[in-house]
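Summary for the steering committee. The consortium agreed at its last meeting that each partner would contribute one worked example illustrating the joint modelling workflow. Our contribution is presented below. We chose a case with several input lines so that the handling of multiple components could be demonstrated. No manual editing was applied between input and output; the record is shown as generated.
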Amino acid sequence: MTTEHPILSVKGVNKRFGGLQALSDVGMEIHRGQIYGLIGPNGAGKTTFFNVITGLYTPDSGSFALDGKPYEPTAVHTVAEAGIARTFQNIRLFGEMTALENVMVGRHVRTKSGVWGAVMKTRAERAEEAGIKQRSIDLLHYVGISQYADFQARTLSYGDQRRLEIARALATDPKLLALDEPAAGMNATEKMALRGLLEHIRDDGKTLLLIEHDVKLVMGLCDQVTVLDYGKQIAAGRPSDVQRDKAVIEAYLGAAHA
Amino acid sequence: MQTFFPQLAGKPKAAYAATVALAVVLAILPLVVGLAGNAWVRMLDFALLYVMLALGLNIVVGYAGLLDLGYVAFYAVGAYMYALLSSPHLAENFEWIAQMFPDGLHTPLWAVLPLGAGLAATFGALLGAPTLRLRGDYLAIVTLGFGEIIRIFLNNLNAPLNITNGPQGISNIDPVRVAGVDLSKTLQIGGFELQSVQLYYYLFLVLAVAVIVVSIRLQNSRIGRAWLAIREDEIAAKAMGINTRNVKLLAYAMGASFGGVSGAMFASFQGFVSPESFILMESIVIVSMVVLGGMGHVPGVILGAVILYAIPEVLRYAAKPMQEAIFGAEVVAPEALRMLLFGLAMVVIMLYRPSGLWPAPKHGINPAGTQTATTASATPPA
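What follows is the complete predicted structure of the assembly.
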């Protein structure tokens, strides 16, 4: 897992909401081809950290580098352009659009046709559209929901909506795919299927960042984890090591069990 | 061709035949209606102007989901631009313009259309810029205010410099000339006569078809998808890398440009513009056309525009005799009845067809295997 530079390198992130220090000096390094887990009890600051690196929140301090290049997470759309694609804890699809159109929107950031091309149906625009469509169909196949390409996104089942969100994120050609609690609300069978999909994506050379409540899923799936509690990093390393960490057990189960 | 008849997409011949049939009907419509009198053809002309307006607003409201209650401002911008560039008004009030154009200002159609579209688009982006962070009710209130501001400017820009001639409006506006043909005069072709209103009909029809084609092509494009994405979920759209600020401004500009073209045509057709034509009520009627027809669905919006334009016109002719037949006297004035019916139509539509009279076709409304879908996804993808 050693490469010259990490895919994502974040150092010294601080974020304060009024009197609440939501994140204090949090950092992580994610290497190419890893599934990196970010775990912690409720209110630990996982989602805040996630929103900071994806540009939804502006951090008070911190330095960020993606694939060796520094980036400023100041606007959400520039982060996607830089190469971080995300999914949402409470699925946010474009409900009235078809599954295929949802994925096609994901190609927006890697294509460039404008109004003129669309109105004139220029050769370049038609070629680009055909490419977008083909790539999107391929991605629907990849996540296993191509049979619902023409269905409105909101009519898909919960598990399939999760898959569609992942396909849409993959359509942006991300360097890092960041998933916010992808297993939330899934039953055991769906979780198994999701795990298969995520491993498949990793094996195809993508790097993943996972926020998860389900410790079992994270421990089985992730190569590295960081544990947050009250906005501080309390442990980091391989899942098997972290599992035995005293601070982690204390955070999850209380001091009596540590 | 197929774009007009998506349900015939698989049958190019049928789509072609349907298009030709529709074209023939639209072509002979003013000739047939003309037999009943020019007033009726004039209604067709106005219906086409409203179709253009409604389709322009559809880009903002229907595609991008930004409720704009001041859309008539762009209609006004287009109309006043044409009025100023093609009437004696500026030359009469400004010495230097009179010297520059000794024959008066007469801007030709090929210059007016891009100018009208461009100027209105600029205004669209300018008025859109401060509203980018607003949504829903707040956006509606601010756009409503902008619409009124433009009208009030037009009403008062007659002093110290007389630019718009204030409430009196601008008259003596040139009619449109296409290839040397003056559309305000009857045209003789062989033994055949085409009235001015019929000539305008054909011009407006060409423009309306252009607006329809542009609307449909935009909808099925990268930009169109970005608009729909913003309408559906702005945060998710941003997370997909869409620069929502620019894409929203583009929606405002594109929508406004249609309004500008429509306004320029209105000015030339009427030969007269005044601020009274651009009141808030007009904006509300145009929004109603889009909502009632089916937001975001081009054929639906066209239907909405035609129906809502037709209601008051029909009332104008039918309300009095009908009331006299029923009550023996005219009880309610047609004008009052008009608003009553408008309101009633909106309430009924919102109750029984909340997505409009002719909404966009729904795909997979009944996913045969929502359940199968779950089980299918249980097998890891190959």
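The first strand of chain B starts at residue 177 and ends at 178. Chain B touches chain A at residues 214, 217-218, 220-226, 228-229, 232-233, 235-244, 250, 254, 362-367, 370-371, 373-374, 376-381 (CB under 8 Å).
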